[in-house]
Amino acid sequence: MSTPREPATPPTSSKSAKHVKVVIRTRPTSEFAANEIKFDADQKSVHIHIPKGIDGGFINNQQENWDFRFDSILHNASQEKVYDDCGHQIVKSVMEGYNGTIMAYGQTGAGKTFTMTGATENYKHRGLIPRAISHVFREIAERPQMACTIRVSYLEIYNEQIVDLLASLPDGGDGYNTSSSGGGDAFLAVVEDKAGVSHVKGLTMQIANNEEEALNLLFEGETNRSIAEHQLNKISTRSHCIFTIYLESRSRVESSERVISSKLNLVDLAGSERISKTHTQGLSLKEAMYINKSLTFLEQVIIALSDKKREHIPYRQSKLTNVLRDSLGGNCNTLMIANIWGERDHIEETISTLRFATRMMCVSNTPEINVQFDPFALIKKYEREIKELKQELAMHDSLANRSHVQYESFGEGQRMELLKSVKAFLKDEENDLEIVSLRQVREYFQQFKAAYKSLEQEREDLQSSIKKMIVNNGALTGDKLSSMHDDLDISRQIHDADDGVGETEASGFSVGLAPSNGKGLPNRNSLKKKKMGGSSMIPNARNLGQGGLAHGEEEDEGGYDREYSSRQDEHLPVLPNQAGAKHKFPYAGAMVSRADEFENYKRNKGAEVYRILCENKATLKEKKKIAQVLGLQINASKLQIDSFKAQIEARRGRAKPMAQEASASSNDIIIDEEEYALIDKLKTIKSTYRDAVEQLKSVRAEVVYCSKLVESVRGKLMSEFESWFEGCFGVGGLGNGAGMGGGGDDSYGGFAEDVMDIGEKFDRLQLEKMSLEDPDSLPYYNARKNTERRMLRK
Ligand SMILES: Nc1ncnc2c1ncn2[C@@H]1O[C@H](COP(=O)(O)OP(=O)(O)OP(=O)(O)O)[C@@H](O)[C@H]1O
Q1: What's the 546 CA to ligand 1 centre distance in angstroms?
Q2: Does pTM top 0.80 for this prediction?
Q3: Which residue's CA is the closest to the ligand 1 atom numbered 14?
Q4: Domains in the chain, please, with CATH?
Q5: So what's the ipTM on this one?
Q6: Per-residue pLDDT reduced to its tens digit, 418-458
Q7: In sequence order, what DSSP letters do the residues of 436-473 get, joined into one string?
């Protein structure tokens, strides 16, 4: 079932403003006030003369004459004449696609209903509506080339409520109802669409296939009209009624997607008499008030429309003006028939009607043809055109020897090929991408986008994996950081990384998860912890029963405690009077604080060396951090590699029976798209993994180098301090006068001997441990020790 549509898009015709046409129709009467009411010969002007002092005159006593001019005056005209003058042209324009409205206005009993509906018992006296219906179907019959659909709606506005006069009809399935719930709602609401066009929501729009069906609908509605007895007229309509004919037409022969949809509103307004005149009471008084109110609002809209400066038109004040929005100052050819009852008794109502009618003439409308395009028909048309254009294009290509140009959408296989090319291009494996068509360029862009997104995703995944691992292992600061740093065995990672890439069975790095007995170089801190635990096999000053220093300082503190005591830990015996971080030496009867002197030395004589030491340590720390992050990245990548491999294996396991069956006749390995994507991802992550491993190697070399530098500068600082201390305080070695073993001139040498003995023991144990656990680190360790010894002996 097709549906009637309101014009949503501007029509193609040019717009031109037209004022509302106003025609005066008189109700025939033998008591016509011929002395007071006169019409000009051109049948367009009305002159009213009421001499002063006439009894009953309500009008301004000062005014005796009124002149009005209209489009036409139909005095005692037949129904046929009225239709020819008022209805015919508008119906014609509706057939062309313009909206039309004819409304009857006037006092009760002036002949509005007679004009619009007519006398039903006499065919000759039928009114505008049945004549319009008949005309519309005649017009349709004269247009066999057009497929036309006629729908009809009939509503009544009674006491400011909209009633569907066709709601009682059974829904035959071929009509149209503007609400989903059908036409059963008692009162309907006016709604506006996006284009500002008003609709009565839920109004029944019944299809009429011929004149008879349309007339049946008119009569059905007539019987439903609210009728109240009235003193002026036994059967007086107390409501506004709007009978609407909707036309939808399209050509049967050409451009059938073009649909013309127009409508004709035929409006019978309620009587415009004043309440006082009708002597109404009770319910009828209420009715009269509503009628009066809505006609007042109608008048306000008319006044607003006739004032060109007014921007706001108060359509929403009443249902009537809201429903007739299009007809008043909108997209419509509008004509008003002002019915007057030209008897002396009704002269004041006549003047009131003529005044209103005059104002109505000032209202301008902009009627336009309502054309829409049927989307389904449009699609069909475009499909046809595309087909023809493709044929043409193919012909041009073959003439230009361009046979491999693809204009159709790319298939998945082709897209994969393009993706390969794009990746090769991004990796510089291909210098250029071959361009053959615009569609292909678009596909390339899509693939670039996909590749970019995929890389972004992988990067995010990697980052979140690293973050997770960091969270699992604790924050990268303080003890947690150093603990992770201890566990992060860079050398082993590189070793594993070299071996593991590309091998399914390779295991990932186990940052923070390595078993306690796993191989790993016990670095400074781990050794330190073991020493502090007191059960280490590695001897140092403290577990040799010398009391020892509080040794929990961070490497970067760089004070005496660190610089000096670390040497003491490893090489020097602790003096009996050592307590905490201070080392006291007797000098000229006073205790000289070696620690204090060392602090002074760092700030003065040894300041430059100390500055270099601090710089080197900072660099070392930074490199270690980078190495640590790289280690985490490598671990994360390895986890991903393992995961992808597992997925691929799982897929292969599932696909094996099918693949065997499918490739029974050939030796081809069948890889589906999903597996291809996994392999592709695996390749990418392996590449990331290798890159990180390479970076780690290089950073590790830098760490080694920086460590050497730190140790070297530290050794230099210490030995220079020792020399300076000796020179200043005349102490011949640390053991002199301190109650240590040895003594005399070579007391320093003896002390050094002792130191070396302990150091050698320590070194030997460390070497043994390291050769077992991580032989790769031996060169580094040996070199460091040799340098330290050299520095110490200088
Ligand atoms: N042009 C006319 N020729 C013959 N009879 C007419 C004509 N105009 C009106 N009448 C008669 O006058 C009476 C009142 O007319 P009508 O009901 O059309 O008035 P109305 O303006 O519609 O009143 P209301 O506002 O109460 O509905 C009717 O009996 C109608 O037949």
Answers
A1: 130
A2: no
A3: 109
A4: 18-369 (3.40.850.10), 382-461 (no CATH), 474-793 (no CATH)
A5: 0.98
A6: 888 888 888 877 778 877 777 788 888 888 888 888 888 88
A7: --HHHHHHHHHHHHHHHHHHHHHHHHHHHHHHHHHHHH
